[in-house]
Amino acid sequence: MSxxxxxxxxxxxxxxxxxxxxxxxxxxxxxxxxxSRGLRLDWAAFADAWRAGYRPAMDRVRRGEMPWLHIDxxxxxxxxxxxxxxxxxxxxxDDREQLNQVWHRLRPWPDAVRGLRRLKQKFIIATLSNGNVxxxxxxxxxxxxxxxxxxxxxxxxxxxxxxxxxLGAAAxxxxxxxxxxxxxxHEDDLKAARAVGLRTAFVRRPREHGRASGYDLPHxxxxxxxxxxxxxxxxxxxx
Length: 239
What we know:
Layout: E1 10-13, H1 22-37, H2 43-52, H3 54-62, H4 71-85, H5 93-100, H6 112-120, E2 124-129, H7 133-143, E3 149-152, H8 163-172, E4 180-184, H9 187-195, E5 199-203, E6 225-227, H10 230-236
Parallel strand pairs: 1-2, 1-4, 2-3, 4-5, 5-6
Helix pairs in contact: 1-2, 2-4, 6-10
């Protein structure tokens, strides 16, 4: 089905993996942290383990096993577990807090800022991330990400892919669901957004997990737009 892009008012973006290279950034910063404190770990495996704890932790909140926690607090909880698993039990409290802040300084993919600036000329562009507001604000400041608005699951006390996040974001931006397009590199995110009436754009990030998996099409080819990167997305949407 063709999309009337002039009917789209706002683009909302997944951030971790879609806008920023979380894995490369975490490896780089953790390695630097470890070198300054004499910690010798497999930092790539460490980054993967830290990220792998993210969804199970959110699911514990959803099941009512833990109260609502924003992502900084979940990341810190997971960090403590991962440090213990890797045998790094002697890391001081202040150092743990400092290490946890690396998520505030994730670097964008090379095309991200350029593509966002183009898209911003035609659409409202906003984050729609499970990251908390302070994390996303620091990240934008650190990497010059040109958002019009920073929206977070924290505002709704629901993590993606709960419907409340997508519908809440559209409402806050003064847009109907069909006037809002979710942009992500993750099919589950887009399917959840589409289920509540948002338009969808899939952006390929073949190196998100550190492997050059190629530019394979997503399993679901019915998203409204499929783009190689943000510059390609801007081209396809006439921005």
